[in-house]
Amino acid sequence: MDLKQGVVTRVDGKRCQIHSEQNTYHAYIPHKVIGVDPKTSKPLCVGDRVLFIEDEAEEIIVKELLPRYTKLSRRAIGAVAKEQIVASNIDQLLIVTAVYNPPFHPGIVDRFIIAAIKGDLQPVICINKQDLLHKDKNKERIEQVIETYRQLEYTVVCTSTKTQQGLDELRNILKDKTTALAGHSGVGKSSLLLTIDPDLTLVTKNISRKSRRGQHATTSVTLNPLCIGGYVVDTPGIRELNLWETSVAEVTNYYPEIAALSSHCRYRGCTHTHEPKCAVKEAVEKGEIEEFRYDSYYNVIDSIENPSMSSRPVAFHNREKPF
Prior knowledge:
Blueprint: E1 4-12, E2 15-20, E3 23-28, E4 49-54, E5 60-65, E6 71-75, E7 83-88, E8 92-98, H1 106-118, E9 122-128, H2 139-151, E10 155-158, H3 167-174, E11 178-182, H4 189-196, E12 222-225, E13 231-234, H5 248-251, H6 256-259, H7 279-285, H8 291-305
Parallel strand pairs: 8-9, 8-11, 9-10, 11-13
Antiparallel strand pairs: 1-2, 1-4, 2-3, 4-5, 6-7, 12-13
Helix pairs in contact: 1-8
């Protein structure tokens, strides 16, 4: 029985779909697979490179997980601390949010930026539904947030499937890369992909009128080829994102404008949350650091110190003040 190598394109419980040498195999995932980290909630994820065999009963069985060079992961939901790896061996993370309907959440954008950097992925921010921006009473604030991300040298693309705004730029970003899409339900991830590649087999749903939240269109993680070259990983909408193995001390590193002022605080090891003579809090009060970024930073720190509390970021339209 010769070992074959392939890439996992879908996982459904104890079974997975593997693409290898132009063929698709439906394989069984046994209890023990070589190379699987016991700290992970599931043995395999989309994008994994695996070795598999076909046994005497013509059953396809996964034998070994090869090393992952990048990953998108989070802390699995539940009491036991486990890492849930959503996708692996991808180049970039397209963080999709909407300017309106559902409400804009810069907090979830920042959390995904952290997850991307921790997983050695390039974060790209996609602000979708630009055709609805005129309906939002916070239009100027949202435009300022977009400008802030650009000033921090993040790649930002503003899109609309209705007006076609930004779609050529998005195509160039996705072309010949393997990209995972992430964001809340209803922000238009599947609609964007279908506009770029109509041959993709994806489902779209409307926003719930009652909750103003998106309804899950994508129900499982899948790896799909793009007609323009490259691959996309479409993920179910994520309402909350608990960061995996992130310490309070390292959070500052993911906020460059905060890290730049840390050495000016009175106390070494200042967390910039409650300490007096904090250069970061003073900069926020002076308007030198955007308040929404500090709110995001504060909420990440709080979720690490209080992991039992919900990590769902507060909507931009109803943001709580940390001080």
